[in-house]
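fyi for ur records
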Amino acid sequence: MPRIMGVDIPENKRLVISLTYLFGIGNKTAEQIVKKMKLDPNMKASKLTEVEIAKFNSLLQSEYTLEGDLRREVQNNIKRLISIHSYRGLRHRIGLPVRGQRTRSNARTRKGKKKTVAGRKKAVQ
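which gave:
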C-alpha cells in the first residue's frame, strides 16, 4: 500500500479515488493534484513509484493543510466558537445540529446521552 502523509491509501483503486482517503482532500482537489503532478488519473495507486510518492508528500505538505493539521485547526475553530459563547458554539457544546437543521424529527441518532429539545407540548386528549 502506498503511504502518503502517514496514511495508507488503497492500492487497487484509481489514483484520484485513493487520494480522497486523505482527510481534507475531496474529488475536485484530488483531480487538481493529479493534474498538477501530470499523472494519469485512471492509473491504479499501486503503480506509483517511490519518487512519485515523495513528490506527492512534498507537494501536499507545501500547498495544502491536511490530516492532523487540518483536524487540529477545525477543533480549534470549534473551541473558539464555544469560548466566545456564540450560538454555533452553544449548539456544538450541547451536541445539537449547528447549521439550522430541524430537531423535531431528526438529529436524535447521535452517540451518547439522549438529548431532549425543549418547547414541544404534549397532545391533550
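Residues 68-125 form a domain with the 30s ribosomal protein s13; domain 2 fold (CATH 4.10.910.10). thats all i got for now
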